[in-house]
Amino acid sequence: xxxxxxxxxxxxxxxMETAQIGGTAKGGVCRLTLTDLDRQVRDWFVAQCEEAGCTxxxxxxxxxFARRPGxxxxxxxxxxxSHLDTQPTGGKFDGILGVLSGLEVLRTLKDTGYETNAPIxxxxxxxxxxxxxxxxxxxxxVFAGVFTRxxxxxxxxxxxxxxxxxxxxxxxxxxxxxxxxxxxAFFELHIEQGPILEDEEKVIGVVTGxxxxxxxxxxxxxxxxxxxxxxxxxxxxxxxxASRMVEAINKVALDHPPLAVSTVGLMEVxxxxxNILPGEVFFTIDLRHPDDEVVVAMEAEVKAELDRIAGELKxxxxxxxxxxxxxxxxxxxxxxxxxxxxxxxxxxxxxIVSGAGHDAAYMARVVPTAMIFxxxxxxxxxxxxxxxxxxxxxxxxxxxxRAVLEYDNRGSEDxxx
Length: 417
Ligand SMILES: [Zn+2]
What we know:
Elements: H1 8-18, H2 36-51, E1 55-58, E2 64-68, E3 78-82, H3 96-112, E4 120-124, H4 138-143, H5 149-154, H6 163-169, E5 185-191, H7 196-199, E6 204-210, E7 212-221, H8 238-254, E8 261-263, E9 267-270, E10 280-289, H9 292-312, E11 316-325, E12 328-329, H10 332-344, E13 349-354, H11 359-363, E14 369-374, H12 390-416
Parallel strand pairs: 3-4, 3-5, 5-14, 6-13
Antiparallel strand pairs: 1-2, 2-4, 6-12, 6-14, 7-10, 7-11, 8-10, 9-10
The structure holds zinc ion.
């Protein structure tokens, strides 16, 4: 088979060039969605895609699609992409790597005159970060039918400006309805944003899905009383109960090794006074696992433990589920194309499940989808010091290129058969 390789230096230079648009003193990027800086990087991206011989279209959520024709343009395009917006103190790679690697793949195909069967596209999804307009992955969510356009347009930033007004203002409201743009497959290259690949000295993560996630809010109620005059055996101390619950919630994840995680990250103690027994404690729970059935089992175990502890300490307890994000399993043929691409380039690799959300998680609902991870230093992301190695960036883009060509060839074999 072909042994095309991307131009690593050109890709790296493009990443460093876009990092100047909203670049921060600490070496990060602040380029919130639908700001003037976002318009500037979009203008740059569109110009580069056109220079690479692509036709650019924009949908009514501001998602940008740059297409390189194939031999058979009746086939739905094989797409790559991610996002060019960042957190307020974001890094140079989160999202940007996936978009610019897609651009680099298209540049490489142009340079070599390689003709694919299907058209190939690179996509910039609007407002992945959700930092300015919550929730995250808003425009890929509209594309996948998770949110409506009206809902997206109505989202407001902290100054009261709406997503819709700001999209119109920067001039990136296209005419095509989000979701109408036909795609044959979607591949997203991203930094891992976790420590696993670096820890195991692997270059490529073959991402098989995104883990399931549930959030709960818990209120434990006891009885406020004097810290000096209430004997121990007559106390109903909500914080003692909550403390045992935190330990129990931690153990539930430990009981489902190695992939389960559970976190109590927020707690409020009332009245929070040094000489009063806490009468009420509010805390949150975050449970995650790649398999929804395990998440369901963990939930049942957590609830049973909370009830047991509350009963022993004569406390009342209220548990409310506030978010349920089911696990995503990526398309087998797309995952296989990534695995073959990593092996074909002789990069060390392992299967991995994404702990964070990505545009690909929503795309997987409507299009065959997979992701590729590369390591980032110490797993740090959403931080100005976020860092990926030059060689890893090149490896990720080469796997992206090869996975797309694998998938494109597979399609033609299927049609021939
Ligand atoms: Zn991202």
